[in-house]
Amino acid sequence: MGENKSDVLQGTLDLMVLKTLELMEPLHGYGIARRIEQVSNNTLSLNQGTIYPALLRLQQRGWIKSEWGTSENNRRAKYYSLSRLGKKQIERETESWERIAATMARFLAPSP
Amino acid sequence: MDWLRIWFSRCLATFRRRKLDEELDEELLSHIELAIEDNLRKGMSKESARTSALRSFGGLIQVKEMYRVERDLPFVDAIAQDIRYAARQMKRAPGFAIVAVLTLALGIGANTAVFTLIHALMLTTLPVRSPGELVRLTMNLSVPATDGHDAPLNLPIIEAIQRHSHSLHGVLGWCVYDFPFRDGSLNSGLHGAIVSGDAFESLGVRPAVGRLLTPLDDQAGGGPDGLAAVISYRLWRERYRAGPSVVGHHIIVTDHDATIVGVAPAGFEGVITAEHPDIYLPLEFQAVLYGQAAKHEGGRLWLQTFARLSPGVKRAQAGAEMNTLLPAILDETVPSAMRHLPVIETARFEVKPARTGWSKLRLQYTGPLLMLQLMVATVLLICCANLSGLFLARASARRQEFAIRGAMGAGRFRLLHQLFVECLMLAIPGALLGVGFAWMTGPWIVHMLGNPQAEQAISMRPNLAVLSVTLGCAVLCALLFGMAPSWFASHTRIEAELRTLHPRTAVSGTRLRNFFVPFQLALSLTLVVVASLLGSTIQRLLTESSGYRTENVVFALTDFLRIPEKGDALVALYRRMAARIEQSPGVEQASVAALYPLMDSRWTEEFVAANNAGRVRPVEATGNVITAHYFSALGIPMLAGRDFQDDNSDTDTCIISQAAARLYFPGNSALNRTLRQIIHQMRTGVDTFRDCQIVGIVQDTKYDSLRESPPPIVYIPLRAEVNGFSNAGAALFFIIHGRSVEAEKSAYLKALHEVAPTSPEIPPFEFTQTFHDSVARERLLSVLSGFFALLGLLLSGIGIYGLVAWNVTRRTSEIGLRIALGARRVEVFSLVMSQVIGLMVAGILIGGTAAFFASRAIRSFLFEVRPADPLIFALSTLLLILIGLLAATLPARRAVSIDPMQALKTE
Description:
Number of strands of chain A: 3
Structural class of chain B: alpha+beta
Helix content of chain A: 40-55%
Strand content of chain A: 5-15%
Largest sheet of chain B: 6 strands, mixed, barrel
Distance between the termini of chain B: 64 Å
Number of helices of chain B: 31
Shape of chain B: globular
Strand order of the largest sheet of chain A: 1-3-2
Radius of gyration of chain A: 16 Å
Order of helices and strands of chain A: HEHHEEH
Helix content of chain B: 40-55%
Largest sheet of chain A: 3 strands, antiparallel
Oligomer: heterodimer
Number of helices of chain A: 4
Strand order of the largest sheet of chain B: 3-4-9-6-8-7
């Protein structure tokens, strides 16, 4: 495994999950974890297991819902999809994340 | 909102835990399988596909644990576990559990009972609209040499406040009344009130049926329904079976026709706490009974007054405004002759919060009840010390258990949690049982207030407020008595404990336990001293001579207001009736008086010896208006001179008590001298006087209460008009002495029917009852404090017993060894006892000091007992020592009888 992996920032995992689901719902936990790894080009040190407490939190907030289904290779798996509330939440989270990112960028930019 | 959603979902999950666990297992399994299949597709071997899948997943167990912690309420599980464990512990030692629960029940029950009474009398909010705005208005009148008292107001003042004040509105007057009441065949007395027409509107009370009183009902001559009456919800249900037809019903109240216009809402008992009004009439009723002048009189203060603060106004602001308005209001309302009396000049308005209403009982009982609450709190502390000691003993026996649990990974917090649950499992049943005790003893405690109205009105049923305080009490107790053992348990050193073979030899915790015994003894001694002081107070009050004979004496109030005889004829009627009563069989003397002894009402006049007039300032004495045979009926010896005559021949004469003789004629015989009564003429403002010749001197008696020493008393004969001055009122008392109370009562009623058949019948009452009720407060204090002191003593005894028994058990092998080595039994006994005696001495020293200060604090409740009475202190200490020694001797005897062989074998 690569040396330059960063830890997942607090709170960002939730947004990653939501964004993943927005694009390819419904999806099971393994699929979500794989997708996050792929998008991040394996630069994140993510234990796939930690996706499950995150899914629980999102479910408790009513942002995603789950349903048992059958996977591509005929295996019973739990599929997650966005709820109406979750869709709204994505906008809000994205906006706040962009604000933070922009602020961070200003700090990191070489001073004039 | 998010947190609400999360907790809701967590709560739901708690109930479906097993199902959710299975689902999680399945989900995670399918994750791993999917990963393995992916890996296989990438061309990995079966073995490495599996390893790689597990590695990238991370710790399976950790993920599950993290998931579960966030999914439901894990502490519920822990609590359930602790409860099951505690239940097992209790089953193993049921004796301990029973003692603990009973002890707590007594302690908490006593607290609940006293608090229920305090809550009912002082803390219950009135069921009216925005009670926080409600204030009580009084006029503080300070008579020189007294603290001043809060007097009620009257109608002109209320109207003036309504007109002038901006900070107050909805000013209402309220006066409690007893009404003779007739409805068809029903003829009885009703307790009620006359109130301002807008009282209900101002309070914001809605009728249950019909309408409530309005200002229209309060106008001169009555309102649209004539004399309107509102009845209580209770009366409506009990007498009228809750029928709606009650509206418009005609009744007779004090011989006047009235119409029921509506029913007050359930639970509304007026603004005077501990009252039980069943009927409300407008203030106009005062005019119906005594004329418009009486309703609007400015010289008498008789209406309890309440008002609302206007929006945004603070109580202090209202008070300031009222006192700025005061001179103008007094100018407007007080008769000119009284306006410049010193007492009026120094008067001030007081604006007090009335969220909880007001009661005269509060003046009398606030101090005593707070003191009792303090005493029961002390009892509860003793309880907790006891239980703490017991728990500590158990904790030390359970050290190994704690150590093992610690070794298996139980955190300190988890152990504390467990112990706290165990304590709660004793405290909660104890509290419930205590509430039961309080409920059962409640009526008896209220009865001791010696106030029939309060007895009916005060509900001792524990309500939500009381229950929550009790529950809080229980949790606090659990914390208190659980604290010591918990502290102890959490400091268990695991490896040291597990290495020790014999848990009994562990000694830490002993010092802490030793602290409890002196602590308990000190508190008990304080309680016993306080109770003894209060006990001897009531004993002195009841046994010290009051100067009166109380046995076989009855009093009866007459209501001759509506009989045609006035003046001479009225006096003649009284005399005729007294003579008629005296002729009845079983009656020896009958007399008429304006006041009966210990009536709790004072009539004072200024007198001066006529020959000293002008040289000596007139001095106040208490007075009474009587007819012949007053002294013989009450057993007051005539020391010199004669009694009043049976006829009207005594006009300008008087009889005085010894104390009055000493006061006005020091060093001389007072008989046949002339006493001058100073009369302040209200109308003209000029003082006049009246001279009377002293024809008799009687022995001293107490006057309106048993607490004071006999005051100077001047007795004036009952007479019709003399010099434009009559003292023959329509409401005087008959005082009757004879062979039996029953004979006297029936003689009075027979004479009343014969002489004044139209007058309402008011039941006579016994002097012994009056006598005992006049010390109701002291009786309540002494009985309850005595009971609490006994409870404290009992608990301390149990505490000492427990400590000694524990010590003997702990040291069984040591004692066995000593006996085996030749120690004599006496030595063993004194070995065990010496430790206890040391603790007792410490407790008594601390307790003596505490009791010294406590007895000073309750000084105002005492009567003819010095706070630091050495005899009481000595006897209380002796009692405590006796109980302590008794409690210690029982287990100490067991130590003596230890069989050395047995003791050493069990080692």
